[in-house]
Amino acid sequence: MVVTHLRIAPLTSTAAIDPATLRNLIHVHAMASSIEHLRIRAGPDSADILAFVDTDDPTEAAETLRSVVARTIASSPLLGPWRII
After folding, report:
1. Which residues lie below 8 Å from residue 24, measured CB to CB, with a gap of 6+?
2. Distance from CA of residue 26 to its chain's centroid?
3. Out of 42-46, 63-67, 81-85, least confident range
4. In whole angstroms, what is the distance from residue 3 CA to residue 83 CA?
5. pLDDT of amino acid 32
6. Beta strands 47-53 and 2-10: pairing type?
7. Contacts of 80 (CB under 8 A, 6+ apart)
8. Per residue in 19-58, is it b (16+ CB within 10 Å) or e — as a string?
9. Entry pTM
């Protein structure tokens, strides 16, 4: 298992996203992936996403998380102004 990190932020000023809401949105898209656990720390300017991925390859873990988060952003109106940074 490998831990990987990703940060997202809104393109414009916005209220902070609720960490539990963000985790739930990502979890829906992570169900078919090798992501085992998600942790979210959200503030007014960004959200940090920490994921434990069932792999031995750090590059694969990072790509898995990036793909899941990109799909989550693309499919959720709540995350419309947010981007991976």
Report:
1. none
2. 6
3. 42-46
4. 21
5. 84
6. antiparallel
7. 73
8. beebbebbeebbeebbbeebebebeeeebebebbbebeee
9. 0.93
Smallest CA-to-CA distance from 6 within 37, 57, 49 is with 49
Question: What are the pLDDT digits (tens) for 2-61?
Answer: 999 999 999 887 777 899 999 999 999 998 899 999 999 988 789 999 999 999 999 999
Q: Is-contact 72 25, C-beta < 8 A?
A: yes
The pLDDT assigned to 30 comes to: 93
Distance set, CA 46 to CA 11, 24, 28 (Å): 10, 17, 21
Q: How far apart are CA 24 and CA 17, in angstroms?
A: 12
User: DSSP letter string over 20-61?
Assistant: HHHHHHHHHHHTTSSEEEEEEEE-SS-EEEEEEES-S-HHHH
Q: Across residues 61-75, what is the average pLDDT?
A: 97
